[in-house]
């Protein structure tokens, strides 16, 4: 693996972050996670465009997308990375602790590239979700590092033997702590609308387009617990986990408790797309 901090490639374990840093002290920062397949960053531009939206939404000067693209490729090249994950983070900068924006601080830009074997396994029994009230703020479309509610929900789910937490707000299903959610009912692939209350996952968008390109009906629509009770199939998506089938939510067994045919088709389409 290799890391980058403000202009230099460094070792991941090298200490470079000033202690008085707004990302650390306030979560005043935004980030992206990108997968590399066959030496190429998958949907890189989409991720960088979303980083731009996140930055602008927290009044952070926009990053230069072309420079970031160049940086991402440099790291891949340095490691001769075939498969792996890239983490990018921009913080408002280092400054003496004070809530208001510092006048003279410079953004800190950091990145980490991690090589892996490229085998993202799909649990063939499907996973369980546990539902929780969504305790996050109202701007979850911003990919910010203020992730405490996400982290707590994920840990609580894990302690109940579940793979992910399903976050519910105003009786609506929103997403998981770090993944988007899909429900298939009567052949229609449904997912909650990408308003301000969820992160508009790049994998989510890819799944919607692959599904419709291949003749499946898709719908971005409000979903509730009742939709879970009658769901034929449920699956969850993210860059790092790809598509994961869900066979239980709380006490409900989904469909017949086995992997669904729509999941298997869309999963195959996704695997074909990344290579
Ligand atoms: N998480 N929803 C939330 C809250 C997320 O944090 C993520 C991604 C997603 C899926 O988005 P995408 O398909 O663009 O990865 C949905 C990343 C992977 C993370 O925090 O590690």
Query: Strand tally, please?
Result: 15
**Proportion of strand residues:** 25-35%
Shape: globular
Estimate percent helicity.
25-40%
SS class:
alpha+beta
Order of helices and strands: EEHEEHHEEEHEEEEHEHEEEH
Pfam families: Aminotran_4 (PF01063)
Family: Belongs to the class-IV pyridoxal-phosphate-dependent aminotransferase family.
GO molecular function, one term: transaminase activity
Keywords: Aminotransferase, Pyridoxal phosphate, Transferase
What does the model show?
The protein is α+β, with helices and mostly antiparallel strands and 275 residues long. The chain folds into two domains: 2-115, 2-Layer Sandwich (D-amino Acid Aminotransferase, Chain A, domain 1), CATH 3.30.470; 127-274, Alpha-Beta Barrel (D-amino Acid Aminotransferase, Chain A, domain 2), CATH 3.20.10. Helices cover 28% and strands 30% of the residues. The protein has seven helices and 15 strands. The strands form two sheets. Strands 7, 8, 9, 10, 11, 12, 13, 14 and 15 form a nine-stranded mixed β-sheet that branches. Helix 5 (202-213) links the parallel strand 11 (188-191) and strand 12. The longest helix is centred in the first third of the chain and has 15 residues, at 65-79. The mean pLDDT is 97. It binds N-(5'-phosphopyridoxyl)-D-alanine. InterPro entries: Aminotrans_IV, Aminotrans_IV_CS, Aminotransferase-like, BCAT-like_C, BCAT-like_N, Class-IV_PLP-Dep_Aminotrnsfr. Belongs to the class-IV pyridoxal-phosphate-dependent aminotransferase family.
């Amino acid at each position: 693996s290799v890391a980058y901090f403000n202009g230099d490639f460094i070792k991941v374990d090298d200490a470079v972050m000033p202690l008085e840093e707004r990302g650390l002290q306030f979560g005043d920062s935004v980030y992206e996670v990108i997968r590399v397949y066959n030496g190429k960053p998958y949907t890189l531009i989409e991720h960088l465009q979303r980083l731009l939206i996140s930055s602008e939404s927290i009044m952070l000067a926009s990053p230069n997308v072309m420079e970031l693209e160049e940086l991402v490729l440099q790291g891949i090249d340095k490691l001769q990375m075939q498969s792996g994950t890239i983490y990018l983070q921009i913080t408002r900068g280092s400054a003496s602790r004070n809530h208001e924006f510092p006048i003279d601080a410079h953004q800190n830009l950091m990145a980490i590239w991690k090589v892996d074997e490229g085998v993202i396994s799909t649990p063939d029994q499907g996973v369980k979700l546990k539902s929780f009230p969504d305790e996050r703020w109202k701007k979850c479309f911003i990919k910010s590092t203020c992730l405490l509610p996400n982290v707590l929900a994920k840990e609580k789910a894990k302690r109940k033997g579940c793979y992910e937490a399903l976050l519910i707000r105003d009786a609506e299903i929103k997403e998981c702590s770090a993944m988007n959610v899909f429900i298939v009912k009567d052949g229609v692939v449904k997912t909650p609308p990408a308003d301000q209350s969820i992160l508009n996952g790049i994998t989510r968008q890819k799944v919607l387009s692959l599904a419709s390109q291949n003749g499946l009906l898709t719908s971005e629509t409000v979903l509730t617990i009742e939709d879970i009770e009658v769901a034929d199939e449920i699956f969850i998506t993210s860059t790092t986990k790809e598509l994961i089938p869900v066979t239980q939510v709380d006490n409900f067994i989904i469909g017949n408790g086995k992997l669904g045919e729509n999941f298997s088709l869309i999963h195959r389409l996704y695997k074909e797309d990344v290579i």
